[in-house]
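Sync notes, pocket subgroup
Present: LS, DG
LS reminded everyone that the earlier model was apo-only. Rerun requested with potassium ion included. Inputs:
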Amino acid sequence: MLANLKMWLHKEPPGRIIVVSFAIIILTGSLLLCLPACTRPGKSTSYLDALFTAGSATCVTGLTLFDTYRHWTTLGQVFILMLIQVGGLGLVTFTTGFTLLMHKKLGLRNMELAVENTNGDSGDIGSLVRMILKFTFSCEGIGALILMIRFLPQMGAHGIWVSVFLAVSAYCNAGFDILGSVMENGNLIPYAADPLVCLTIDMLIIVGGLGFVVIADICHSKLQPTLHGQHRHSLGFHSRIVLSMAILLIILGTIVFMVLEYKNTLASLPNFGAKLNAALLQSVSPRTAGFASVDLSKEYDFTKIFTVLLMFIGAAPGSTGGGIKTTTMLVLLCCVHSVLRGQPEAIFHHRRIDKFTVYRALAICGVGMLVVLIVTGIITSTTPNVNGVDALYEATSAFGTVGLTAGVTPRLSPISRIAIILTMYIGRVGPVSLGLAVSIKHGHIHTDSVLPEGKIIVG
Amino acid sequence: MLANLKMWLHKEPPGRIIVVSFAIIILTGSLLLCLPACTRPGKSTSYLDALFTAGSATCVTGLTLFDTYRHWTTLGQVFILMLIQVGGLGLVTFTTGFTLLMHKKLGLRNMELAVENTNGDSGDIGSLVRMILKFTFSCEGIGALILMIRFLPQMGAHGIWVSVFLAVSAYCNAGFDILGSVMENGNLIPYAADPLVCLTIDMLIIVGGLGFVVIADICHSKLQPTLHGQHRHSLGFHSRIVLSMAILLIILGTIVFMVLEYKNTLASLPNFGAKLNAALLQSVSPRTAGFASVDLSKEYDFTKIFTVLLMFIGAAPGSTGGGIKTTTMLVLLCCVHSVLRGQPEAIFHHRRIDKFTVYRALAICGVGMLVVLIVTGIITSTTPNVNGVDALYEATSAFGTVGLTAGVTPRLSPISRIAIILTMYIGRVGPVSLGLAVSIKHGHIHTDSVLPEGKIIVG
Ligand SMILES: [K+]
Ligand SMILES: [K+]
């Protein structure tokens, strides 16, 4: 059987291996969460509930049917956190790292997998994976230590677990919390005006959402030379794009939230600083962490629609975040801009963007929209008393593996729950990877490049 | 001054001439509608109201602030119908046709304009324009005669005017009606179960929405050979695509409307046939005629979202309809499908689609979405008690020059009204044509095709 598995691993395209392994992890997680020891006394968990929770954790989404703290025992919470860590680091990066630690050596196959998952170039994969693990655990550790400043005095020893859980959940852009002892389903609402908690979580989310390629580039080009007093290099093309998009979207989001919600959901906060703190979190979080420090169900419809946009765009590729990815959005915008200027190529900063990159970006965005639209339809037509915007919000939240909800999740019909589980899965493995995994026959790629051209008139 | 104008016409790119002429027609129309003789006694028309109506008529949108019959005198209605006919035929086709009839000869400049507007190939423009005019007036004439069967007995002599108005409005995909004597703001609701009226209007909308290139192809390849007993040719690539998309979308729309609204807005209709009649109209009309035979404000949210999709897609290029156009949508879908199959080209029916066509389609769709989103934001944030879905519906309706409304138009704030006027204009002249008209400096097109390639990792 092991021989069969080995043969399968060598024959299948890497994308399909990712798709299958993710499914296996989710199913294993759902069985673990079904154990009676995972559910608190007096509560009950159906298999669909467990599957939903395991899917939400593995896909680092954060949509929950119950308050995580009040429904699950510590064992259940530990399982959920493990699923988050495995799913967040990227199943494959994790297994590659594991293989590396065990064998101190990477086979060609594993290397391909690691490249596929981090979207990076295939330089020195071994050191990259070691760096990923070291960097991840360092960030989560530092984050947890800072959070303990708040939670240790407040909750005693339990505060350590809360801090660790929150730090991992934030770095992995998962959005799960176990703050139910403070306020049921309250997420970060009790800490909306607390800069220590919110800024730490903001930082963890942002760093986790940049992607390892960018972090490696920053370490290699800026941090290490600075530490060793050497000449610093300039960042790569990809890193500069990712950083610019992150900064741009964070600032834009904060301003829009401040303007739209100042007299609505932000009104109850004591002063401008607290409002800014909350607006910053509501700008960082939809891409694609899913923490909330205000009551999202009370947001204006247009704030929700704007959030849907941020959720759909998501974070950088090869990061712990989801969505169609900031670079995908940028490629599409560049293409639109070039056409409007009458240029024959998609151009960004005096560089031509390859046709296939544009096509791929278009496919990711197109399939994403289609999935979101179908799921919105399923939710509105099977769940009573849900308006269109809230259903759209929920569907996008699942596709972007965000986890924000306008309060719809616990009310979802069984069919909608299954649709949401599938959407989280599609969103996490990537619609195009999934499509390719399903359609390509054993790594064979069509290359009908000598077809005659067909003229189609558009718009 | 005439010399200056001639010089301008020769120097500017055709796109910019279209953009400017459309603006001039709208402004002229708004001044005409401001005449006191256009407004019925006891009613009043502000300049913004007149501008909105002129814009809506010229852009063949059909969004109205008032009931057309009850607010405007017959003179006002005549002006509106003239604006519809000019806008619907395409300003340029009309002026080209006019020039042709006057001079019996087309200069090179006019030829370019006609090609730009019909998106056709530049074969025999003269006969094309003559055919356009003949065909348009024949269709409208036949439509009006059929409609008289219903309206002459019902309204006497006034029924002739009602029939002509409706036929022109339907063929031009304008969506205006003067049925206010039967039911205020009722549009076709009183005739929802009447197949004579509805099917006639369906046919006019569909034929008008196919585009003249396709109609010419059908005449040339099928009708004329059949009439003369000759061998029939197969239709061109473009025609086959347009026809397939039209049939596909009409059938899909009818089924979806039947399923979603059977027990909601269709419930009051007496039998299955009447419901099917109404569902067919609600499938044909959002692309982009804008007639309604049910109360759209009572539709389920998901039906509205589905309608938004149909409105956004619209009709065929070079037709009287709006939207991003069915072919644009098809190109995008083909590109997505090819990427998912691992193909390196966008392929449709064994034909390769050119890169620039894909880019252009992407730009049209992208700008359209951006415009719709911004306008949705303006409507929700300046108009009280409008939910997000209705605002999205209204914004898309304006962009697609559809004219369907969930009852929001008359309540729009002044800022929203101006935004809607601009959106109708952008939707009618086409976002990319407008962008090119603004950005290209005197016909000079950038051709930086030797730029280095920049690698961007997407999704
Ligand atoms: K999340
Ligand atoms: K219309």
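DG: DSSP finds 19 helices and two strands in chain A.
LS: The beta strands of chain A are 346-348, 351-353.
Action: DG to write up.
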